[in-house]
Amino acid sequence: MSFKTQSITYFIICIMLVSCSQNEKSTDQAKETSAEFKIDYEKFVLDNGLEVILHEDHSDPIIAVATLMHVGSNREKTGKTGFAHFFEHMSFNDSENAPVGANRKLIPEWGGSRNGGTWTDGTIYYEVVPKDAFEKILWIDSDRFGYMINTVTEAALEREKQVVKNEKRQRVDNAPYGYTDEIIRKNLYPEGHPYSWTVIGSLPDLQSATLDDVKEFYEKFYGASNASLVIAGDIDVEETKKLVEKWFGEIRKGPDVAPIDPKPVTLQETKSLYFLDNFAKLPELRMVFPTVEQYHEDSYALDILGELLSRSKKSPLYKVLVEEKKLAPNAVTFQNSSELAGEFQFRVRANAGVDLDSVKTGIDDALVRFEKDGFSDNELKRIKAELETDLYQGVSTVLNKAFQLVSDNEFKGDPSFITEAAKLTNAVTREDIMRVYNKYIKDKHYVMTSIVPKTQPDLAIAEAAEAKVWIEEVKIGVANEEVGQGEEAVYEKTPSKHDRSEPPFGELPLIKSPDVWTGELANGIKLYGIENNELPLVRFDITIPGGHLLDPMDKAGISNFMASMMMQGTANKTAAELEEAIGLLGANINVSSVTEEIVISASCLSKNFEATLALVEEILLQPRWDEKEYTRLKQALETQLKGREASPQAIASINFNKLMYGDQNILGLPNSGTQETVSQITLDDIKEHYNKLSSKGSRFHIAGNVPQNRVEQALSSIASNWNTEGVAIPEIQITAKDTENQLYFIDVPGAKQSVIFAGQLAIPATDANFNNLNYANEILGGGSSGRLFQTLRIEKGYTYGAQSLIRPLKNIAPFIVVTSVRSNATLPSLQIIEGMLANYSKDFNEQDAETTKTKLLKGSTRDYEGLGDKLFILRQMSKYDKPASFIEEDQKELVNMNEADFKTIIDQYIQENKMIYVVVGDKATQFEEVKKLNKVTTEIDIHGNKI
Questions:
Q1: CA atoms lying within 13 Å on the CB side of residue 619
Q2: Which domain does 751 fall in, by range?
Q3: Less crowded by CB within 10 Å, the N or C end of the chain?
């Protein structure tokens, strides 16, 4: 699976790189910290031109490998768009010296994870594996890099075309606002500019791709001299150098790939376009101004400008659009700098029924206010404090360090540029910010898009021109969409002076669970902590029993609403003042309601732990209950719930739960409630509901750079000031329903894909068999090596992804199969799922049992790396009353399972004939098709009402 396409492009940059524009922001440290911060590395260059960067980190027995190819969609040509992304898909297929399908299947079975991503400027491949699989990952990664092209067949080509088309349908065609990026790119950049098409490209271009095209692309761009390789983690540098030379040294150098100079654009006029969206329920306005490329000196000031205009309650866009005019729940502004050019974007998804002309007027008013009033010193100080924390968060795992090093090496020529970027951002002044505002935004031309619901064209900006996009027509029984595995390629292996067969495992790493300390406060709150001193960071939470379980049926969503209200100020601070106080500490605090608890979570630099905890206590014990904030949040929530109706995935999930638990069970309603239930929640209801927050049964979890004695001392105030009566958590009664052979169909007219959920109520996480069910599911639906994924995506090309899972709850939870398939493959996909579930026990064999053990046991080396992972361990201990040794005990339980044990669990909890199926798709083409599955088929609307 990959991150890609349009806005996904921005997403991968943020995920991958702790620099580039988002995280060059992240490097905006306090001056002294940024000057000190660096990532140690050693760099060398192989004779074939491959640049290699090594980073040692012995904190966990894991290793990350990231290979960045300097080729993205900006290297494509008109008529051949989407090829960089498509080639990434092709690369994950076969290679000369690895078994068929090994890349997607073997790595998870070694306990590793793998993925890739393509964006405008590059393509990255990355893995994280236990230390004992290090040489194996060098073998398979180098084989993908240098020895895959001879194995490509026509069948593989056609199969992968369908996978990419499914990805586009899922992320673009079947999603609200999916075409916005295509509209912007076509109008912001002139025809032929490397950014004038989307990363996923044109499907007609993709469909016409040939084997010769694939080989030409490989020959031109996939040489060693056009790449950087980073290896980070538990390595020995000298030994690693030898292994890199062995596995990567013979990869061909490839032709020189000339760099592309920056190509910023200037618009000669403002362009206003509208599009009637088949899925959108809310109107959305975007304004995009051309700016500068990444690493440009102005990009750092533009980053901060984006934060100032919209990212706080004191920002002008928030004040005007959200507070005063009440047009939208929020507004977003940000700078996105890429290799060749940059964009500064305004994005406002308005409340239902809002005319976008009023939103545009509001934006103009907010900018006039910004020009007149500017911003306070505290606002700038807040942003810099937040970015200091972001810097450390961004390099808190070996994979993130690898991304940081490989990106800055390939695009800047300096793996350690994070240090310089920190200084450049920290040096941004008030004058710099106003200068870039005047230079790139004020009175400048831009591209404006009005994306409105198909039935509400009058909400678009007046006088806007209609945007033209190519929309695929998915037809039933199209021959060229029926694909299969096909014959393996016949070829002569590339000669090598090394044995390129699979190397053995190295020494099995010693897996040691982190040391856990426990305690208890005077008011009964139990404490669970893990001290970790790798970075000056800390993450913690207060977990309070209840959550959605305490919601009345007629006011479902009240816990979620209350959690949001608790962040809107305290008795001593307005919402804006609270936000600023948190920001000035570089902290993050959030209150959320989940199914069985309320969680107040926080993260900060360890030096700010006490001050952050003091704010958490203030939020918890002194809520403000501001009438104005209540009104705003209620409108925002109603907008969110309306927007949710645009998502086929959300429609399927909500209705599946309703069918599982029944419409008179709180677990059958979403945590955020419904339009009907939320409309009945008053501020007095929220105040009364707040009294159900009890210290009795609450738990405090903390992981990071803070010792136990300091934690306990800091918590003394909460121990004294919060001592409330216990609250009875209702026992959920679940009435058994007749679910045999039931299928429910929900119509989303024009859907390019069908979302499929299938499942049955299974087991609570407190049951002795819960772990065993998780283990038993691994072969069926555990990621890319699972049978669902391997069959529906790899073999058939019907989907972009498929999985099965069970959620951990104290109450009984359903076992779920979920996928999204192209519309004209709905029936065959259902038939495959049905057969796979029905025969899973019979088909499960001894080798599957051993594969499960290897995969999960080795994968556990990656389970404790981040502070979030460590908090998860503590939450498991506290919620389910597990001992600190539970990880080892769970592993022993897995090791002791045999084939018969797995089959017993499968027979008991994965029973196809007792499962409910939910299909969300296009009724006109699919309803009669799904009836052929020979299940009792019922049509319901998006709210679960029978039609």
A1: 30
A2: 742-940
A3: C
